[in-house]
UniProtKB/TrEMBL annotation:
<feature type="transmembrane region" description="Helical">
    <location>
        <begin position="263"/>
        <end position="284"/>
    </location>
</feature>
<feature type="transmembrane region" description="Helical">
    <location>
        <begin position="239"/>
        <end position="257"/>
    </location>
</feature>
<dbReference type="InterPro" id="IPR002798">
    <property type="entry name" value="SpoIIM-like"/>
</dbReference>
<feature type="transmembrane region" description="Helical">
    <location>
        <begin position="331"/>
        <end position="350"/>
    </location>
</feature>
<keyword id="KW-0472">Membrane</keyword>
<keyword id="KW-1133">Transmembrane helix</keyword>
<feature type="transmembrane region" description="Helical">
    <location>
        <begin position="183"/>
        <end position="203"/>
    </location>
</feature>
<protein>
    <recommendedName>
        <fullName>Stage II sporulation protein M</fullName>
    </recommendedName>
</protein>
<feature type="transmembrane region" description="Helical">
    <location>
        <begin position="473"/>
        <end position="498"/>
    </location>
</feature>
<keyword id="KW-0812">Transmembrane</keyword>
<feature type="transmembrane region" description="Helical">
    <location>
        <begin position="435"/>
        <end position="453"/>
    </location>
</feature>
<feature type="transmembrane region" description="Helical">
    <location>
        <begin position="24"/>
        <end position="48"/>
    </location>
</feature>
<dbReference type="Pfam" id="PF01944">
    <property type="entry name" value="SpoIIM"/>
</dbReference>
<feature type="transmembrane region" description="Helical">
    <location>
        <begin position="98"/>
        <end position="120"/>
    </location>
</feature>
<feature type="transmembrane region" description="Helical">
    <location>
        <begin position="153"/>
        <end position="177"/>
    </location>
</feature>
Length: 502
């Protein structure tokens, strides 16, 4: 199959039943939400340690006697003097127990991120392979998470070790030659640079296709590396074409993110790269490799126009979202209680710092550009909603922690706001849509966690879990529509309408 045919097959597969593939790529955006649970537990343990030992009370009393307003950052001496004045008040917080807890929490967060990334990648590529073969992607992806996560972890570890080995070997060669003769060291460094670059490019090329080999050939790490290397030897033009396309997509994404950063579009570009570019590239390399193995089912082109398909999807998403809200009042009550409860905790926790530390809605709106702000609000808030919902797949806890974290942050910001009436006036117009949307995403995360637990225990089939994931995708589309309207109001209405009155 030539590159043009592979691209056409990729586009058709991606457009046909997107809800049968994209939930796993939305799940990829939830990896930080899952991973940070380790750090959240460590922070909670540290706070409890401070309270039980009286260290937090000591720090509060010491800080109450100080002026915590930071000096002008352009005066280094003033900044240093301010830091030296504040540091003694924070000494009670520097206990060995707190340092140990935070170190363990950081290590747990890193480990969770690596393991979750391996599991999600296994699900994504397994779903892609299922679609390429003409089957149901979500069912294949669910099976792939449990059956292939260790293989994908092995692939990533193997590539890291190979890169480290090549760089270490080059360093040893250059260092040894430099000890003999500086000129020889420079010559060896040049050769090592050229040879090492070629070797590392070959390593990256092999490991780019190795995940496709895992899911197409249903093999392990060694078999996947051998299969990927064999594909590159047999189809060097197709392999090179894919790598060129992949690099071009990455460059285009980076350029778009840089160009749109001023207009607030960075979050939208990041989300688009996660749920459009990533599945498209995975599909493309799997189609190329699958065709090499004779494992690609024919895909008919999609006749519907992209605009009509998009509008139909938004309408379906709205129906699924409203239906989900009606069916799960209990889950929404839990999400509201967690959010409001931790909002109150954030308010109370910030109370000792009221007056010493302030936030200002007026200062945050300086330089406000309505179109850029609306785009940024939409991208950020929908990303948070998606991550909260899909993070719940990891047995509920990440979804609840995300709701709690956002409630805590909003409560603390509100407590420290110097003009609370202005903050409330700013939040109300868009908040009546945005806040319910975030609570819906939290309830959806709890729902997905319960379903995943039942599936893990064998009480629910993979097919039934796939149905739930597909409906969750459409609910998130409806949530996205709600957040889009809220973002427009937040960008164009919320900053201005109250100013004549307050």
């Amino acid at each position: 199959m030539d590159l043009s045919s592979a691209v056409s097959a990729t586009a058709s597969t991606l457009r046909r039943r997107p809800a049968d593939l994209l939930p796993f790529y939305l799940l990829g955006t939830a990896i930080p939400v899952v991973a940070r649970v380790g750090l959240f537990v460590a922070v909670a343990g540290t706070y409890l340690h401070y309270e039980l030992t009286g260290r937090l009370a000591d720090a509060r009393r010491a800080l109450a006697d100080l002026d915590l307003t930071p000096p002008d950052t352009q005066d280094p001496e003033a900044v240093q003097a301010w830091a030296e004045g504040v540091a003694p008040a924070l000494e009670p917080l520097a206990s060995p127990t707190a340092i140990l807890l935070l170190t363990l929490g950081t290590a747990a967060t890193l480990l969770l991120a690596i393991l979750t990334y391996a599991a999600v990648s296994a699900g994504q590529m397994s779903a892609v392979a299922g679609r390429v073969r003409g089957g149901r992607g979500l069912t294949a992806g669910i099976a792939g998470v449990r059956g292939r996560w260790l293989t994908f972890l092995g692939l990533y570890v193997a590539e890291v070790l190979l890169w480290a080995g090549v760089l270490l070997l080059a360093g040893v060669a250059v260092g040894g030659a430099s000890l003999v003769n500086p000129f020889l060291g420079a010559l060896v460094a040049l050769v090592a640079l050229l040879v090492g670059l070629v070797v590392l490019l070959l390593v990256r090329a092999v490991f780019a296709f190795a995940p496709a080999a895992v899911v197409v050939d249903e093999t392990g790490v060694i078999g996947a590396v051998e299969g990927a290397a064999g594909f590159i030897r047999s189809n060097p033009v197709d392999a090179l074409a894919y790598l060129v396309v992949a690099v071009g997509v990455l460059v285009a994404i980076s350029s778009a993110a840089s160009a749109l950063a001023f207009f607030g579009g960075g979050a939208v570009v990041a989300l688009a790269s996660a749920v459009v570019a990533a599945p498209a590239l995975d599909l493309l390399k799997t189609v190329l490799y699958g065709d090499h193995r004779g494992a690609v089912a024919p895909v008919d082109p999609v006749d519907a126009r992209l605009r009509d398909q998009f509008l139909d999807g938004v309408r379906r998403g709205w129906r699924e979202m409203t239906g989900f809200v009606r069916r799960t009042p209990g889950l929404h009550a839990v999400a509201v209680l967690v959010g409001v409860g931790f909002g109150a905790v954030g308010w109370l926790a910030a109370d000792p710092f009221v007056g010493a530390v302030t936030t200002s809605i007026d200062s945050r709106l300086v330089g406000h550009l309505p179109p850029a702000a609306a785009l940024n609000f939409f991208g950020n808030n929908w990303s948070v909603a998606i991550a909260t919902s899909l993070g719940g797949v990891a047995l509920v806890i990440p979804a609840i922690s995300s709701i709690a974290f956002n409630g805590l942050a909003l409560g603390a910001v509100a407590a420290l706001e110097e003009n609370l009436a202005a903050l409330v006036a700013f939040v109300v117009p868009h908040g009546v849509l945005e806040i319910p949307a975030l609570f819906i995403s939290g309830a959806l995360g709890i729902h997905l966690g319960i379903v995943s637990w039942r599936t893990f225990r064998g009480r629910l089939s993979h097919e039934a879990f796939a149905d739930v994931l597909e409906r969750a995708f459409w609910v998130l589309v409806g949530v996205g529509a709600l957040i889009a309207v809220a973002a427009f109001i937040e960008g164009f209405v919320s900053p201005y309408y109250w100013r004549p009155f307050l």
